[in-house]
Amino acid sequence: MVQQFSNSFNRFWKTSDKRIVFILIIAFSILWKLFETHPLNKREEANQLLNNIIQFSAIFSAILITFIVSKVIQIRQERLERLKEITELSNKLTDFRRIALTLKNSHEFWNSVMKMKLDNKYKKLDYFVIKLQYYEYEENIEELKQAYFQETQICGAGLYLGIKSLLEGSRNHWQSELYDSYDHNYIYPLEILEKWTVTNCANVLWTHLDYKWAEYADCFKFAAISHNDKEAILQLCKKINPKKYGEKQFDRVLLGEIGSEFDGYIIPRLYKLTYYNTLGLPNYLDFSLTILLLTIISGVLLPLLLTSFKLEDILVLKLASISSIILILNLLYFLIRFRKILNEEIQIDSK
User: Fold this and answer.
1) pTM, two decimal places
2) Is residue 265, in this structure, part of any structural domain at all?
3) What is the tens place of the pLDDT at every residue in 69-105?
4) What pLDDT, in 10s, does the model give residues 17-43?
5) How far apart are CA 242 and CA 250, in angstroms?
6) How many distinct structural domains can be found in the chain?
7) Can you list the alpha helix ranges (DSSP code H) found in the chain?
8) Is 350 within a domain?
């Protein structure tokens, strides 16, 4: 609770309109002046004020709690709906990575000199290292990159590195799902989805096998791919999209098409849905929790404590005034921001 209040308070000072801060300061000054010039003089007056504060705060808190709970239930339902699509797209992505694994393991398909160099001299390189400037490099990796860029006998290396990066997964995950044809409903971490999206490593299939085929035709030997591997790839393509690939035959264009589909739609879509499902509380709920917390502290807990113990009258009178000021400022802040909250609520986001 304390952490929630601290985070909300820091966000308030960073993001609130300066006009709101100014209004609250002016309101505090006026209220303080009023309580100083027209103070509570009797214990009975303070007790009556405290009872009124408790009653109002209880009603207001109940309304806020109802709103917060209903929104949490709604957000949970939305996440469950997204999770269905996330699971479906994740299974498709797993099938696509199975295609990449089959192609990578078709050793005769690749230029032998290129494959030997990338598996040995450049084994620490992948598409992430080549494309991402902020990637966490190992020691001396920059020198290895420079040597790679100066190579002349690594025909088709871009496709090999792209597939290698597609086959990379979580360090704590064995990726056993790649070695059968079942749907394991494995949900991919946001971090690896972001890397695949930013580097466009799925698009290497379309680039090398379709768009720039004339440039790379001599780098690959499609005839060397075994019949079983071709059938396995074809069946996975049909499983991914029966309508689109149901009547297709295995060839380079098929691989280019499916690579383009995953790079242009499926991986970015999966990344976006996964991102939304990992977000914390929306700003309007965070704001509502802050208001609720302040209301409970100033309008319920403090008045209850003041009426539960036998304290000096002067102390009760002062603290009752402070409780009233905090509650009024809290409600004023809520009313000022309430319109913005309603505007956020009616926004339509195509998630």
Assistant:
1) 0.81
2) yes
3) 999 999 999 999 999 999 999 999 999 999 999 999 9
4) 677 777 777 877 887 777 777 766 677
5) 14
6) 2
7) 2-15, 18-37, 43-104, 112-119, 127-131, 141-149, 157-166, 190-199, 204-206, 213-216, 227-240, 242-245, 252-261, 267-277, 283-296, 302-308, 313-345
8) no
